[in-house]
Amino acid sequence: MSTSSSSAATSGLARYQLDIPTSALASSSTRTRTSSTSDRSASSQSQHGFFYIPDFITAEEERYLMGKINSAPQPKWKVLQARRLQHWGGQIAQKSGTLIPEPLPDWLVRFPNIVQRVRETKAFVESKHEGPNHCLVNEYEAGQGIMPHEDGGAYFAAVATLSLGSHTLLDIYRWAPEEPTATGSTDHDEADARAREQHPVFSILQERRSLLITRGDAYKDYLHGIADRSSDTTQHFARVINGSSIKAPHLQQALISAGVAVQSDPAQAFEVLPAGAGTKQLPRVGVERQTRVSITMRDVERVSKGLGGVLGRR
Ligand SMILES: O=C(O)CCC(=O)C(=O)O
């Protein structure tokens, strides 16, 4: 286990929590959606929000995981228009949200013991299985992304995402305020019919080897997406809220150029621009994205007993 994952386990998630600017807070009162498992679980959660853990795995573990994912049999990949993905842990029946379980692969549960480390963060402590039982692997080539979306009610209201191979910016959106109807009601039949705000309210910079946990209200009150661009520039970095957790010098440099505070100046050679300089005056620093593989882990609370259940699988 890497040093930081051990410390995540012992000192709890709180030290990794990201501060959301007041102007970017979501109004829970605008949320009228009811979902079976996630609402019930989230109501008793003590920690809600976004938690960013840098260096959750080592560089060697990252290489190993990339090797395992890339050597999966071809049919394991589902090829979408703008990315490829693998499902692990079983398929989720669309209508019922029930998992038809399959064992998670050794490279998630044995070496490296990613699932155990995620359990130790206590992010899933109130979920039915106290840890993830399902995993999606997404592969994004530079220029590929994922549309803004929410993860929905089939899962416990927590998601842990490990990033491999490249940084990315996860853009966070709020739901648009609901327009009252002529009768003054804001009820709606379908959560999916809700509109989101057009622009992200903030972004979370995910470095390779980092783990991002989204939990509780944050899971439900915001949508997330990744823009389909091949490099990130000053205007994109200016929205980042986790500058002080970023370790990689080239990303720290980009953040400094965008006027975002980082923990330490990585090299004296970088010019720190005067406070108050508008981003338009700043040099355009572009950081190329490479191919990124993400491992997204969640707990599907409803699990089919089927053959897997009879055999004692989770
Ligand atoms: O790749 C990521 O970091 C996000 C993945 C995601 O949002 C999803 O699989 O629903």
TrEMBL record:
Keyword Nucleus: yes
Compartments where found: Nucleus
Tree of life domain: Eukaryota
Location of region: Disordered: 25-46
Keywords: Dioxygenase, Iron, Metal-binding, Nucleus, Oxidoreductase
Ranges of residues in domain Fe2OG dioxygenase: 131-301
Gene Ontology cellular-component annotations: nucleus
Family: Belongs to the alkB family.
Protein name stated in the entry: Fe2OG dioxygenase domain-containing protein
